[in-house]
Design goal:
It is built from seven helices and 23 strands. Among the domains are: about 220-360, Ribonuclease Inhibitor (Leucine-rich repeat, LRR (right-handed beta-alpha superhelix), Alpha-Beta Horseshoe); about 370-480, no CATH class. Strands 1-2-3-4-5-6-7-8-9-10-11-12-13-14 form a 14-stranded parallel beta sheet. The chain has a five-stranded mixed beta sheet with strand order 15-16-17-18-19, sandwiched between helices. By secondary structure, the chain is α/β, with parallel strands linked by helices. The longest helix is centred in the first third of the chain and has 24 residues, at about 1-25. The N and C termini lie far apart (about 140 Å). Helices cover about 15% and strands about 15% of the residues. The protein has helices at about 1-25, 35-45, 50-55, 315-320, 335-350, 380-390, 450-455; strands at about 60, 80-85, 105, 125-130, 150, 170, 190-195, 215, 235-240, 260, 280-285, 305, 325-330, 350-355, 370, 395-400, 415-420, 425-430, 435, 460-465, 470, 470-475, 480.
Length: about 525
């Protein structure tokens, strides 16, 4: 009887211990309000109490800009695979060292300098450390599964410690203290590399990165692009604000769809770009560009930024069949022809920005533009020219561009431009470089034939008061002189000058000049 009583007491005691232990196991963990909200958002549960079982099932957690947080509470989330802790004044990463299942980790906008606790997170494939205080990246050397690494806005001086990350496909290290790219050549799977705003001079280590599709290195000290000449998979390249001298090394990068360059030392030669027929976006700002003829054949160009160059003639853009969406010509010394006829023609097709150019835009032209172009060997008579316009009401058109490649052989004119205002009371005729006004409001030429005859004969034209010239109305007469060529005026092929009659061709071309005097 006594033994039975003792056994019963032991059983009751053990039962009580078990019950107490079970009660302890079910006590809810104490979480700060920040973690409670984050867990609630993740689980879709309203309330402020969660069981340990619920917390251990959480695989993703996001806490951004919540102030200082207690990272030791991460111990309640052993199965986390994705963690975002952006902007929380974090400096010590020790509590993260046990989260060995993490694949995605964002620690941007914090105060981190020591990466040692991350050594154990070998499952990581994405790591964002932007905007911290990191100098030494060597603790990351063992994260062999990393595919994307963000190191923007830190104090990193070299990338050599990352050379073991053989699976890395994307590396962003803008705004650091990197002066050389040694070690980058080992990252054979790299497709996206961004190292803008550093002190990089030499791109030689990049020559082996044949899988690279995107590269940006704005605001460095790069002069030579030769190491890029074999990277034929590149689709996007940006090297703005570098002292680059030539784009010749890019001539075989035919997959390029986006190219951005800005260099005060650039030689201005775009000829090597004419093979880049997949270019859809081109920026060549502040780079001494003058001749844009090589762009004529780039028929996929949609966005073109040529601001602050030395461009006067934009006729190649008129002749281009590219589907332009925007063209920026700010700060270029556009000639009269470009700022009137060509800009207006472009504006009919796309958005053209010319504010800030070295001229005051003012023209009454608003609607249609006709461009007739043939080959260099054709000389057509006025009647042949006239027949092309026979069915057109010239009053419906603002501009007619008779290209220099045909129509006339006047050595002093690169081409002949005739612009009819809507009221047909002003005619302009001029050369490619310096168009000349040749009509008056009170007594306009009124026809292409009279304008051609006036140019052919040379002499002086008087513009009467009231004439609109480059957007301004003359208050007093202005005299313009149209000089003859060195061998006399050019000749038009026509009835009095049959095609088999040799047309005088000057030995040396001279530039059209006008001599305005009051």
């Amino acid at each position: 009887m006594h033994s039975r009583t003792i056994a019963t007491m032991i059983l009751v005691t053990l039962s009580g211990i078990a019950s107490h232990s079970q009660a302890v196991d079910h006590d809810p963990p104490e979480l700060s309000d920040v973690f409670v909200r984050a867990v609630g958002n993740q689980l879709g549960i309203e309330g402020n109490v969660f069981t340990e079982e619920q917390l251990s099932s959480v695989t993703e957690l996001e806490i951004k800009y919540a102030g200082r947080i207690d990272l030791t509470q991460l111990a309640h989330f052993p199965k986390l695979q994705k963690l975002v802790l952006r902007g929380n004044f974090i400096s010590d990463l020790t509590p993260l060292s046990t989260l060995v299942h993490l694949k995605y980790l964002n620690l941007s906008d914090n105060r981190i300098s020591d990466l040692t606790p991350l050594k154990s997170l070998t499952a990581l494939t994405y790591l964002n450390l932007n905007t911290n205080l990191i100098v030494d990246c060597s603790p990351l050397a063992g994260l062999s599964k990393l595919r994307a690494l963000r190191l923007n806005a830190n104090a990193t001086e070299e990338l050599t410690p990352l050379s073991t990350l053989s699976r890395l496909e994307s590396l962003h290290a803008d705004e650091n203290r990197i002066t050389q790219l040694e070690g980058i050549q080992a990252l054979g799977q790299l497709k996206d590399l961004r190292v803008s705003r550093n002190g990089i001079v030499d791109l030689a280590p990049m020559s082996t990165l044949v899988d690279l599709t995107e590269f940006s290195a704005d605001q460095n000290r790069i002069e030579n692009l030769v190491p890029l000449e074999g990277l034929t998979n590149l689709k996007s390249l940006s090297v703005r604000q570098n002292p680059v001298r030539s784009v010749a090394p890019l001539k075989n990068l035919t997959r390029l769809a986006k190219l951005s360059l800005e260099s005060s030392r650039f030689d201005g030669d775009l000829a090597h770009l004419n093979r880049l027929t997949n270019l859809a976006e081109l920026t060549m700002a502040k780079s001494h560009v003058r001749n844009i003829e090589p762009l004529r054949g780039l028929q996929k160009l949609a966005r073109l930024n040529l601001r602050y160059n030395d461009i006067e003639d934009i006729h190649p853009l008129i002749q281009s069949r590219a589907p332009f969406k925007t063209i920026n010509l700010d700060g270029n010394p556009l000639g009269t022809l470009a700022r009137t006829v060509h800009v207006q023609a472009l504006r009919r097709k796309t958005k053209v920005t010319i504010s800030g150019s070295l001229f005051a835009s003012s023209t009454a032209l608003h609607t249609n533009f006709i461009d007739i172009d043939q080959n260099h060997d054709d000389l057509l008579s006025y009647k042949e020219v006239q027949s092309r316009f026979a069915k057109l009401d010239l009053k419906e058109f603002d501009a007619i561009d008779v290209n220099r490649d045909w129509a006339i052989s006047l050595d002093e004119l690169a081409n002949l431009i005739v612009i009819f205002s809507n009221s047909m009371d002003l005619v302009w005729v001029g050369g490619k470089e310096s168009p000349t006004a040749l009509g008056t409001k009170d007594s306009p030429f009124g026809s292409l034939e009279k304008a051609v005859d006036a140019v052919k004969q040379g002499g002086t034209i008087i513009l009467a008061p009231g004439t609109t010239l480059t957007g301004k109305t003359l208050s007093e007469p202005m005299t313009l002189t149209v000089p003859k060529g060195p061998k006399g005026p050019g000749r038009i092929v026509g009835a009095n000058n049959p095609p088999d009659t040799p047309t005088p061709v000057p030995e040396k071309k001279s530039t059209t000049k006008t001599s305005p005097r009051n």
